[in-house]
């Protein structure tokens, strides 16, 4: 449920994240790519027959890896891959184990990127994991724990505009880092008993089934806004 709410929180803010996207390429799709990656993880979660910490983490890692879109989606999938590796076979998890799983995810993501750049989602995730490890032995309550690391991720996100010249020039924070913050927010909202629903329809899936012919939709289930606005467009226009 935490990951489903994280995916929905991310998608509900997808356009805002897209609008921040100026690095590494200003193509305005970071939020969309991260959201598609998260929904792929959720699809894998829906296939689970036994729900444990280890099986959920593995499903999220597997689903996000298979459905990773763009640089931000690939990095997100690597964060989940390392996270899942640390939680393998666990039925339950405490804050210490969770924190070290976050740290393993960061390590995996950094190793997966040929030239890691600070001031991106990598920085936000790394400083969040470092804070998690520092406080995990003392903060045992998960609500408080996630609140604390969310504060850290938000603080680090604000610094990204000072770390990358292109972000400073555009007057924005890193788009991928913003997406990471929304994912943590979704986790926290779940712990607080909130059930996050998608705002209206998820245009990445629901609208496509209505506005595109079925054959094209089945071949290209994750359609860009261009195709949705131009339903007679050819597949090459994706």
Report on this model:
The protein is mainly α and 238 residues long. Helix content is 68%, strand content 0%. The protein contains 13 helices and no strands. It has helices at 2-12, 14-20, 30-45, 53-66, 70-86, 95-112, 121-136, 142-163, 165-170, 175-191, 206-211, 214-219, 225-229. The longest helix is centred in the middle third of the chain and has 22 residues, at 142-163. The chain is globular. Mean pLDDT is 85; it is low at 203-238.
- Indicate the mean pLDDT: 85
Name the assembly state.
single chain
Number of beta strands: 0
The largest β sheet comes out as:
none
Distance between the termini: 32 Å
User: What would you report as the Rg, rounded to the nearest angstrom?
Assistant: 18 Å
Helix count equals: 13
Going by helix content, strand content and strand pairing, the class is mainly alpha
Q: Can you write the helix and strand succession as a string?
A: HHHHHHHHHHHHH
Q: How much of the residues is beta strand, in percent?
A: under 5%
Overall outline = globular
Helix content: 55-70%
Low-pLDDT windows of residues: 203-238
Summary tags:
238 residues, globular, 13 helices, mainly alpha, single chain
Detail the topology: elements first, then pairings.
Elements: H1 2-12, H2 14-20, H3 30-45, H4 53-66, H5 70-86, H6 95-112, H7 121-136, H8 142-163, H9 165-170, H10 175-191, H11 206-211, H12 214-219, H13 225-229
Helix pairs in contact: 1-3, 1-10, 2-3, 2-10, 3-4, 3-5, 4-5, 5-6, 6-7, 7-8, 7-10, 8-10
In brief:
This protein is mainly alpha-helical and about 240 residues long. It contains 13 helices and no strands.
């Amino acid at each position: 449920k935490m990951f489903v709410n994280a995916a929905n929180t991310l998608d509900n803010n997808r356009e805002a994240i897209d609008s921040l996207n100026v690095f590494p390429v200003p193509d305005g799709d970071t939020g969309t790519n991260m959201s598609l990656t998260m929904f792929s993880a959720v699809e894998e979660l829906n296939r689970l027959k036994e729900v444990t910490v280890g099986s959920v983490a593995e499903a999220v890692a597997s689903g996000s890896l298979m459905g990773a879109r763009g640089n931000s989606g690939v990095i997100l999938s690597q964060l989940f891959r390392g996270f899942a590796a640390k939680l393998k076979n666990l039925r339950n998890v405490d804050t210490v184990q969770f924190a070290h799983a976050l740290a393993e995810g960061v390590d995996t993501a950094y190793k997966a990127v040929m030239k890691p750049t600070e001031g991106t989602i990598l920085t936000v995730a790394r400083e969040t994991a470092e804070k998690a490890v520092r406080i995990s032995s003392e903060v045992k309550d998960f609500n408080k724990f996630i609140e604390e690391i969310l504060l850290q991720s938000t603080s680090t996100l604000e610094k990204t505009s000072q770390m990358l010249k292109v972000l400073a020039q555009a007057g924005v924070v890193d788009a991928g880092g913003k997406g990471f913050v929304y994912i943590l927010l979704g986790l926290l909202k779940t712990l607080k008993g909130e059930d996050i629903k998608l705002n209206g329809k998820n245009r990445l899936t629901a609208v496509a089934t209505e506005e595109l012919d079925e054959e094209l939709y089945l071949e290209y289930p994750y359609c860009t806004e261009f195709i949705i606005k131009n339903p007679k467009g050819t597949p090459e226009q994706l």
